[in-house]
Design a protein that fits this description.
The protein is mainly alpha-helical. It has helices at about 100-110, 115-120; strands spanning about 5-10, 95. It has one domain (about 1-125). The chain has a two-stranded antiparallel ribbon.
Length: about 130
Amino acid sequence: MTARNVWPRNRYAGPGGGLYSGPGGGLYSGPGGGAYSGPGGGLYSGPGGGLYSGPGGGLYSGPGGGLYSGPGGGLYSGPGGGLYSGADGSKAYRSNWPPLARLIPLLRDLGLDDAADLLARAHHLAL
């Protein structure tokens, strides 16, 4: 399986945060970043990418995937999950998703409205 790049998917804008655009941040557009469209990036649809629906992909609905609602998944509200709002430090949810403000409209463009609706509802976004 291809190595999976992951970034923080939180709302922190400082270094290493989900809204940080420098290396290691969720909005980084360089190779391997959350806003990168090449192999391993958040906007990549191949294996390991944020738009990949197979194991290890950001759109995978199985255990650990971005669309998984069980422990460790992107739609899990407990500690370590993508919807957890408490302080969990180093256990913060990390995913290979691109930023949600880019992911949800892109999913709609690709005709994946069900996934877009699910993510928009879960994150209370009107996208």
